[in-house]
Design brief:
alpha/beta; single chain; 5 strands; 163 residues; 6 helices; 5-stranded parallel beta sheet
Length: 163
């Protein structure tokens, strides 16, 4: 699919927005956290119906883009997951494998890059700190509040910059 520069962008997070990570939270509740196990279990994530429906609906008017804190080494599994669950085609922006900055920093930097040449109609994300930073920067945000929040995942996103 070629990019249509006339269409606005709808930017979707994955974990907690499109993918239900509840089954793999156990890897983050351990000390030390088992990041390899956490990411290895990602292909088994069930889809979150509310997020998937919103992505499909958004694709009618916007180009869908995926923005995740998952590391680049998870790209093949992530693309396969998106295809398996019938999500719209779209560019996938991932964290560098060695990037440990908080999600609110990495995602905002990517949003700003995307907005240089296109209109970002909305960001859909479950991370409140990411949402707040995006709103402060002038982006329209849809808070994905349809998954059960995880304190372990929230801490990991902010303190360890891992997802």
């Amino acid at each position: 699919m070629t990019s249509d520069v006339r269409r606005d962008l709808a930017v979707f997070d994955l974990d907690g927005t499109l993918a239900d990570t509840a089954h793999r939270q156990k890897y983050l509740e351990r000390k030390p956290r088992d990041w390899a196990g956490f990411f290895a279990a990602a292909p088994l994530d069930p889809p979150l119906p509310e997020g998937v429906a919103l992505a499909r609906e958004s694709a009618q008017e916007c180009e869908v883009v995926y923005l995740t804190g998952r590391p680049e080494r998870c790209r093949a599994d992530t693309l396969a997951w998106l295809t398996r669950h019938g999500l719209p085609e779209g560019a996938l922006h991932m964290r560098r494998n060695d990037d440990r900055r908080p999600a609110r920093v990495t995602k905002l930097a990517t949003l700003r890059r995307l907005a240089r040449g296109r209109t970002v109609r909305m960001l859909v994300d479950d991370d409140e700190l990411v949402c707040l930073e995006a709103e402060r920067a002038g982006f329209t945000v849809v808070r994905a509040r349809w998954a059960s929040p995880s304190a372990a995942l929230k801490d990991a996103q902010e303190r360890e910059g891992r997802t």
